[in-house]
Write a structure and sequence with these properties.
2 copies of one chain form a homodimer. Chain A is built from 12 helices and 25 strands. Chain A is an alpha/beta fold and 460 residues long. Chain A has a 5-stranded parallel beta sheet. In chain A, strands 9-16-10-11-12 form a 5-stranded parallel beta sheet, covered by helices on one side. In chain A, strands 21-22-25-24-23 form a 5-stranded antiparallel beta sheet, with helices on both faces. In chain A, strand 10, helix 5 and strand 11 form a beta-alpha-beta unit. Chain A is globular and about 70 Å long. The interface between A and B is large, with 69 and 69 residues.
Chain lengths: 460, 460
């Protein structure tokens, strides 16, 4: 592998691998590229001043005033540069890709232009927070959370101002993680969003369990209110809806993200679902010399057999590795994703994998759903609590299509069993026969996943 | 289904389904048989006075003096009799099976003989504690734990006597659960066993983690000491080894169990591994009218493709259902087991699935093993702890063969992901690509199972 050279080049010229974006996907790719071929010339161009940090850890870090936001940095820039030999350039914003000349160009933080040639390019530009198209989203104190810079800004703001009350626009998982963080900082929170359903993808009987957990902590939820504008009030910010005005010293916009694919689109690369950069199983774009990985790229969904866009950290890391391996000629293909995700909402674990009922319908399945309430520990075992499991199967084929779990304990890791089953396209009947672990402190004899599968089978 | 009648019988005679044994497998079968065919005549013959209790919950119940042992009873005898219409007879010991006449006979608790004819028979006689063949095992204060009667006896003994010190012979999972129970009752414990290795099936670097957890709680472990006899001392019992004598007011023998297959053997039924009653995938014995389920019966092992004997509660319940379904003509086959088990040792969760290295060798694989230390939560997340994962793959086929986990959190349910993978004979490479859940409170971005798989791939 170490003798790898640019294809078609007889002079042994060292390959130039350029990476746009220095977070999870970009730095995973850079590190792996140098491990694969130590004399490869690896250049990372990152527009901010931060690289390689745990973006998902930000809400938990913001919750703790005494811990520096920098503790989220997994590896320092100088380590990448000095120990790994990666040409890491921060404050470098790429503005265009010339695919014919194989050159990227842009400006650095001092306003100086740069042009860098590549043999192979990786676009790992991540995602951008979606900002509602209403007046006032640029007011001081209106913030969103995506980059470490955003996290730093929010944490500084909370630390400097004496914030007693905040408004969060959005009720997705980032919004729900942030409400817990703000609650830990003794900040009262109102949450508001236009759509009337609390967690749209969640089973209608399970979503209220999560809703109650949030409300139990004093958070007020306003679903179904279209935001008209944000404006300055008397020492506060006002979030104005048609029939409702909410006030706080801070407004957090957390209505989701969109793929940062503008650069790729401008270069004429194909886009996929949600305008994410379209990649094949080798994470190669429509240009054979350009790869894409991370929240800007799409992925193959194993359950639907179609492309999808689900921005998640594990996929970003894995796709970064795959890009680096393919650049090194290893011919790695990724199986794809099944949409496994988990988050914490106060004392609850919320997990899902595969398709919801409405997603299953969209993709042409004939879904049958079941929701069961089981216990997190065995009969008569102390400290047992409810665990709620939803499971979806396809009436025609008998296939397992997805599962959702909510519980105080035992939901987060349990979801991985149906996730593996989805990867191998197991039927509900086959899954129901799996030999899952049992001991009284950890669940009932019939694991809640198996009880859900057994109940689902009866309906199919 | 309700019109089911005895095969070959034109008069519509109601089927007689007789079940020997009234714990997990037996009562699961009885309940399901009545649900399948309400007018079936279902008779359960249980030699003790207890039915349908959580045997696995006994150590946890013994730990709590204020909770009655009867709280482990899942369903009372009168419910089975009155609401479910099951002819449940306690104190009925079956002594022989006449397969030609299709009659079981025995004696009841008053010494009165009985003879009961059957059309279909289920043997669910469970397992019997193994007792070392040394003098003194019948002394008062020397006990073992299998039936609810055993649990009651131990709990009464602890409650009545002022026990300060106990000796446990054995270091298997029942022994380790009991040491925690006795510790909770403020009883000091010495543990002793003949074999020198602490947990023989466990990876050699992981077993010390469990050992230290036990010793950290003041328990003294003496492995590699052959027990010669148990004798009365001065107000104590003495466990005498060649080079060591341990003393306590109570001795618990927990060196494992053996299948209670004597009745089946005497009736000429085929036996399998460990002398368990041999059953096919429909849990039918070598006699087409006799089924067997629970700890007395063997099972098909999905990884080895061979019969095995692993007494576990989930299989007992599942096999009980399968027997009842097959008796009702449903033609149910069980996939088999992969040997998934979990137990708690003080603050540690210990889990396994599939084969250990030495088991893999025994069954003709060419095993490669890896052991990794990962963290239970994300980088920089508070309260993170170590999680140890062992993984075994087959060098030839690339198949995943097994996994073991130890950790304070996140080990118990994580084992289910590789368990499902084993059911579908996944390769380590395929498993390494699974889309598992990630959020900072629940694990690192790369789940420890995936890191283990990635490391194992490098060695294969």
């Amino acid at each position: 592998m170490a003798e790898f050279r640019v294809q078609g080049d007889q002079r042994g010229v060292i390959m130039k691998f350029v990476i746009i974006g220095g977070d999870a996907a970009g730095m995973s790719a850079a590190s792996r590229a140098k491990r694969n071929i130590p004399d490869m010339e690896v250049t990372v161009l990152e527009k901010t001043s931060d690289v390689s940090y745990s973006a998902c850890g930000m809400p938990y870090n913001i919750a703790e005033p005494e811990v520096a936001i920098e503790s989220l940095v997994v590896r320092q820039a100088h380590v990448f540069r000095e120990r790994q030999g990666i040409d890491l350039r921060i404050g470098h914003r790429v503005e265009s890709i010339d695919r014919t000349e194989k050159v990227v160009s842009g400006v650095d933080s001092e306003g100086k232009g740069f042009e860098i040639p590549y043999d192979k390019l990786l676009i790992a530009t991540g995602a951008t927070p979606r900002i509602p198209d209403v007046p006032g989203t640029d007011l001081p104190g209106v913030m969103s959370l995506k980059s470490l810079g955003d996290g730093r800004r929010i944490k500084d703001y909370i630390g400097r101002q004496n914030i007693k009350k905040a408004v969060i626009i959005g009720m997705g998982y980032i919004a729900l993680e942030m409400v817990e963080a703000l609650h830990a900082r003794k900040i009262a929170v109102d949450m508001v969003k236009p759509r009337p359903v609390f967690i749209p993808w969640m089973n209608r009987e399970m979503a209220p369990v999560v809703k109650e957990e949030v409300e139990r902590h004093g958070v007020r939820l306003y679903a179904g209110h279209k935001i008209e504008r944000i404006e300055n009030g008397n020492d506060t910010l006002k979030v104005v809806c048609a029939d409702l005005t909410l006030e706080g010293q801070m407004v957090l916009i957390a209505v989701g993200v969109r793929p940062a694919s503008e650069l790729a689109a401008a270069a004429g690369l194909e886009l996929g679902p949600a305008n994410a950069i379209s990649v094949d199983k080798a994470v190669r774009t429509s240009d054979a010399d350009i790869y894409s990985a991370g929240d800007c790229a799409d992925a193959f969904h194993v359950v639907t057999n179609k492309k999808t866009w689900i921005p998640l950290a594990l996929r970003a890391n894995r796709a970064g590795w795959a890009a680096a391996d393919n650049v090194a000629g290893k011919a790695v293909e990724l199986q794809g994703i099944v949409g496994t995700a988990v988050f914490k909402v106060f004392d609850l674990q919320v997990a899902r994998t595969g398709l919801s009922v409405s997603e299953a319908e969209t993709f042409g399945f004939n879904p049958v759903e079941v929701m069961i309430t089981a216990r997190s520990r065995a009969h008569a075992h102390p400290d047992t609590s409810n665990i709620y499991v939803q499971m979806v199967g396809d009436q025609e084929s008998g296939r397992l299509l997805g599962a959702q779990l909510v519980g105080k304990e035992g939901a987060a890791h349990r979801v991985n069993a149906p996730a593996v089953a989805l990867h191998r396209r197991m039927s509900v009947a086959e899954f129901s026969q799996c030999d899952l672990a049992y001991a009284p402190p950890f669940g009932p004899t019939w694991d809640p996943m198996l009880t859900a599968a057994n109940q689902l089978l009866k309906k199919m």
